[in-house]
Amino acid sequence: MTFIDFLNLLIAALLLAGIYAVMSVGMTVIYGVMKIVNLAHAGFMMMGAYFAMELNERLHLDPILAALLAFPFFFLVGIAVHWLLVRWLPHSDRPTLQSLLLMFGLWLVLQNIGYLVWGNTDRSIFTPRTLSIIDLGPISISTLRLVVFVAAVGCMAILEIALSRTWFGRSVRALIQNRYAGRIVGVDDEKTARLTFGMGIAFAGVAGALLATLYSFDPDFGRPFLLRSFVIIVLGGLESVSGVALGALVLALVETFSIFFVPAAYQPAISFAMLVVALVVLPGGIASLWAKRRRLA
Amino acid sequence: MSTAAYAPSRAEARVRLLVPWLLLAVLAVLPAAGLTPNLIRLLFITFVWVTTSLGWNLLGGFAGQVSFGFAVFYGLGAYTAALMIDRGVNPYISFVAAGIVPAIASVLIGLPTFRLRGPYFAIATIGVSEATRVIMNNLSITGGASGFRIMEKGPFRQVDHYYTALGIAAIAVTVSLLIVNSKFGMALRAIKQDEDAAADLGVNPFAYKLAIHAVAAGLTGIAGGVFARYAAFINPPGVFAFQTSIYILLMPVIGGIGTVWGAVLGGLVFGIVEEQLVANFPQIHLLLYGGLLILIILLEPDGLAGLLGKIYRRVRRSRRADGNTHSGSREADEVLRRAGGG
Questions:
Q1: Quick one: closest CA in A to B112, which residue?
Q2: CA distance B54 to chain A (A)
Q3: Candidates B242, B246, B294; nearest CB to A102
Q4: Domain map (residue ranges) of chain B
Q5: Rounded distance between C-alpha atoms, residue A26 and residue A33, angstroms
Q6: Fewer beta carbons under 10 A from the terminal one: N or C of chain B?
Q7: Which phi and psi (to 5°) does residue A50 adopt?
Q8: Are B113 and A276 a contacting pair, CB within 8 Å?
Q9: Which of B134, B138, B290 sits opposite A105 (nearest CB)?
Q10: C-alpha–C-alpha distance, residues B82 and A178, integer Å
Q11: What 3-state DSSP class applies to A188?
């Protein structure tokens, strides 16, 4: 591996990490506030991809713009789903199998609505930007990936501001830390949960729309990304937004650089294997490594 | 469990003991009654599904460990049987091996993943099953992604397959009934309710989970082997599919998680409905099950078996109210129902 190869791969990994972060952050906030493992995340990502495709084909909107429009749309969808299904689940401060199976059922429903509406052929979104490349001497960057990265980082920045500056964000952080204490100091946990669920689904939709510009998709689109999201949020420590960025970076680096060590056919197995290893070895996320060291010192 | 919420009278208990034997006898003589090959095939597939449903229920229903990875065992069983039958080994010996190989695999999978609890275990099993499919797609001894065709010597006799499938379903029911009433089964139920409390009572959750995982994997693997012999062609995207895991999970959950007859009911309903729907409307089929899963989780956690039980008790109660006896029993029934269903 020459230095240039290394640099090219590093840039590719960084750009990948951006979209990975957006894809996982919705799952993290829902898990943090409601302790629900949202398997339907994959279904909403798939819906986001088709949302962008439909807007692109029917209204000739730029897919990146469509991705941004996906945010309010899927926010409302998320609130509707919460009102219709999720709020009937018994509250728990630990993840329950009931909620897991409910979200799994919802995923099945979404996926098969996808099959009914769009069929099972591979679709893709093609724009003039898709194949263009920015050349910087020996280093080349895909324009589209750069644009997607910028959009992804923008989303993360907005989320970070919302969480740190607004009343809603403070409620979310309070509930993540301690649901009961949050209620004692006057956080409306029902309302916050509803908004959080909407936001989590909105991020799934945006991520799906952004990913649709990079990869081809079918109604089973979300599944490999769902597993990657799990790896990322486990690496990130499950409940922290900044942890997600770290986890996304780690997974993107491992996936990108593993092509040197693992045959391409076995490539998909890496994230799955990492998932199990991460769950078993690092249940507290990467940050727990430092935390442990600090406790020892 | 709601079925345990009221004490059956002696006559009822006798009927309950008789029904399974009657069912088995009817199913055993059915082929002689001149069924069409298509119906025999439908029943064959249904028995295979019932077996996997019971297998999953041992781990998911009794011990409360929801796994999304049973396609791994189904697929390993299918491939084990396929490779052995293809080399001329007696099919029934191959089926035994098709149970042993997945059982060993289940221990290897369980050793790391049973350190996780509840949903984390469930998520890890998704990872395991996806990784297994990728690996099986690339292995050369199994023909990789292009699949494996089984050449069995001797004539094809559909009735043989029918009785094999009926036999393994009966074995699965027997194993489940033996476990549910044993000390082992009670330990599993304790683990399901509270792992820490179970550990305090001297039950080693890790060892028990590994043991039941192996039994469940063995049953599922045998079912996979029996299916492979009938299908005569298997490939990783088929038997190792995430879809297969989903089917195996849906049956007992929809039928009635944690009860033997609920799992049987789920398998029966699924097998019959699947065969009719999947050929014509594959998407509607899973859409239907997804919707059913949502409804069951929110409204009737005991599944179809719980629903039937409820209807049965309501009918009985109204009949008793007509006779105007036991004025207090309605309340008692209600209290018991609540206590049992909670």
A1: A280
A2: 18
A3: B294
A4: 1-23+302-342, 35-300
A5: 11
A6: C
A7: -70, -30
A8: yes
A9: B290
A10: 53
A11: coil
User: Using an 8 Å Cβ cutoff, are B233 and B149 in contact?
Assistant: yes
The model's pTM: 0.83
Residue type, A265: A
With beta carbons under 8 A apart, name residues in chain B contacting A115: 282-283
pLDDT reported for residue A79: 94
CA dist., res. B249 & res. B124, Å (int): 15
Place of tokens 């946990």: A189
**Tokens at residue A238, please?**
């499950």
CA–CA separation, A96 vs B296, rounded Å?
Answer: 15
The CATH code of domain B35-300 reads 1.10.3470
Which residues neighbour A87 within 8 Å (Cβ) at sequence distance 6 or greater?
A190, A193, A194
A102 to B297: CB separation less than 8 angstroms, yes or no? yes
B214 is written with which tokens?
């192996």
Count how many pairs of residues, chain A against chain B, have C-beta atoms within 8 Å.
Answer: 119
What residue of A is the nearest CA neighbor of B295? A102
DSSP string computed for B177-211? HHHHTSHHHHHHHHHHH-HHHHHHTT--HHHHHHH
Q: In chain B, what residues touch A280 (CB-CB under 8 Å)? A: 112-113, 115-116, 124
Nearest to B97 by CA among B116, B123, B78, B120: B78
Q: What span, in angstroms and rounded, lies between the C-alpha atoms of A163 and B229?
A: 57
Instruction: Return d(Cα A61, Cα A68) in angstroms, integer.
Output: 11
At residue B340, the pLDDT reads 45
The ipTM is 0.82
Cα–Cα dist B151/B299, whole Å: 48
Our CA-based measurement puts residue A141 at a distance from the nearest CA of chain B, in whole angstroms, of 30
Check pLDDT > 80 for residue B196: yes
Burial A121-138 (b: 16+ CB within 10 A, else e): eebebeeebeeeeeeeee
Q: Among A97, A112, A230, select the one facing B287 at the smallest CB separation.
A: A112
Inform me whether the C-beta atom of residue A269 falls under 8 Å from chain B C-beta atoms: yes
Residue B16 φ/ψ, nearest 5 degrees:
-60, -35
Q: Which amino acid is at A6?
A: F
Cβ distance A275 to B66 less than 8 Å, yes or no, reads no
**How open is the CA angle B93-B97-B102, to the nearest 5 degrees?**
155
Contacts of A211 (CB under 8 A, 6+ apart): A19, A23, A45, A49, A217, A221, A225
Window A:216-255, CB contacts with B under 8 Å: 223-224, 226-227, 230
Q: Which stretch of A167-176, A261-270, B173-182, B219-228 has the lowest confidence by average pLDDT?
A: A261-270
Q: Which helix (H) or strand (E) holds B233?
A: strand B233-234
Separation between Cα atoms, residue B25 and residue B249, nearest integer Å:
28
What is the nearest CA distance from A135 to chain B, expressed in angstroms? 35
pLDDT digits (tens, 9 = 90+) for A175-212: 888 888 888 888 888 888 899 999 999 999 999 999 99
CA distance B283 to chain A (A): 5
